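Handout, section 4.2: multi-component inputs.
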Amino acid sequence: MPHTALLNAAMLRWLDELSTQGIFTTDDSLIVRSWNRWLERTSRRSASTVVGQPLFTAFPEIVDRGFQKHYEAALTGSVSVLAQPFHRYLLRFPTGDGSDGSEAMPQSCRIAPLIENGKILGTLTVIDDVSERVKSEAEMRRQIASAVEARMVAEDTLRIKDEFLATLSHEIRTPLNAVIGWTKILLARPSDAQTLQRALSVIDRNATAQARLIEDMLDMARIVSGKLRLELGPVDLVAATIAAIDVVAPAAAAKSITIRTALSRAPRPIVADADRVQQIVWNVLSNAVKFTPAGGSIEVFLPEAPAPIQLTVKDTGEGIAAEFLPHVFERFRQANSSSSRTEGGLGLGLALVRQLVEMHGGEIRVESGGRGAGTAFTITFPEPKETRVQPDADAAHLKGRPLTGVRLLVVDDDADWRELMMVSLTGHGADVMLAATARQALTLLDGTRNQLPHVIVADLAMPGDDGYALMDVLRASDPPLRSIPAIAVTAYSGEDHERRALEAGFRLHRSKPIAPDEVTSAVLEALNR
Amino acid sequence: MDLTPQQQDALIELLNIGFGRAAASLSHLTGHRVVLEVPQVSIHPIEMLGETLEKVVNQDVASVHQIFSGPVAGDALLILDHAAAGILKELLTDEPSLPLPVDASGREVLTEVGNILLNACLGTFGNLLDVQVSFSIPHLNLDALNTVLRSLLVKREGMRYALVVHAGFRLRDAAVTGYLVIVLSVASLDRLIKAVEHWEKGLN
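Output:
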């Protein structure tokens, strides 16, 4: 055999046995004439069952799926490319990984005429398995899509923060303008009683609004940093709701908004932080007042037991567009953040409400028929467990004058707080001494050697020597001074501060803000009573 | 070698028949209505081809290349801007675009589109001349325009003229223009033009 012929034979054998593509040929009557090893393996049909058969009989799917025209074209000299994205596959083979074959192997194909000496002898089909390529491109698309998504989320977050900052500066300045403006007027010239009254009420209203705003921000910051702690006790949700309605009633009346209630006549007790429950109900109600136009109405429902403890506040306000509903409880979100918005506020209120409700183990839902169709907020609180609805033990404890005969020293640089303590603790029967600084406290202690206090209640942060310095001196003293129990009552809250105070030698740590009665309870605890 | 206005009109008319078939195939493939138009044809000496194409496409091109042989022989190319190629494959496949160099599937789609277009165009000429041309397997290149053209110049010294056909794709409210370049010998081109003229007379 001439060398070239040998070479051709070797090449054919290679294509037949070793090629990593499917290769088959037909003659010019489209009878299959060769079927390589790759095809045998991949199609699970041996060459002996395919070769000699008319192509369209062996693979009727070629006709069913409209591919016969490519074979007809090949017999006139044309080449066809079958791109996988358009056709998926030419012949239905099980997937390359040998799995059950429920999905066809993605293929890329070429169908070409076989021509010798200008005569078309038949056709050649080359099939590539492109499973890997399809997978990796899908993965690449997925990655690109998720990168795009991430960038959009990041841009969205930035935009929301920018809007929030713009809102924040506006919201903080607006009440300040009123306060500063009226203060300047009052300072500049003597005012008659009517003007004075007007000015003070404007200042009062704006300062209160400002305080509310700052309080919301701080609460949110506390929640975010996990520092907000609930003082749980039994709370009657009905009473809390009525109290909150009382607070928003003037604002509602000013807009001629009617508030209708259908509240349980019997108390609906929950285990909650009383102040926070107030805050929750107040926020939802004032939100309703804010977004209900003049002359509208608000309905408040809280059904009798045994219905679930569910407070619903429904308004006839402007409603919420369906696309904004999922974002209602997100921080810094307002449906209209443009400068033309008519309602003030930071967009923190509802986010706070949700956080607080969830901290109580409850949930809040919002429903709206869309723009102009009003909104309904429903807050569900968990049923209290029987054992937890005890009457307030501390409150019972404080009946009468539990501190009679107890001498107390209160050390705090805040004069208002000292006065409050004096009134409250003496009201419970204690003898109270007051000191504004650690130094003053030590002088007092020095002068009352025979009448030393039974308990010291001290602030931690004070100008000059602070509460820790005071404790250092006391602990370094001789008994009995050394053994007087001390309570740290401080605005430094959180576990770190508590641990530090206890390590310094304080018997107890209580965070401000704190109700005066809780100080009394702490004193009793320090005395082991 | 310039085309007379009559020859131009006749060629455009003839090419539109082939493009109509190609558009029907593409519409069927993609499930979208694809319209293909030939707004312009021109003939240039192959040395001037670069200058002509540079006016309409950037240097970065995707080109589908097929060699055809038979009584009429030459090179046929579909040349698209990278940007146009990206848009076209996205429009055709409904898939978000990957960059062409890493998008083998996208390149294959463009190869099939080029193949359909070149087949339709040359098939029409073949029918007209009553000759059978056969084709090589189409190949997609992502080379600079200069590189693509240089390969034509080097390979086929006898080929003197290029027929440049503007191919306007319209689908899904978008329009993309590609350029079909058919490089022929003077004799083949002459034969083709005469046949076109003859065909047009037969119509009238």
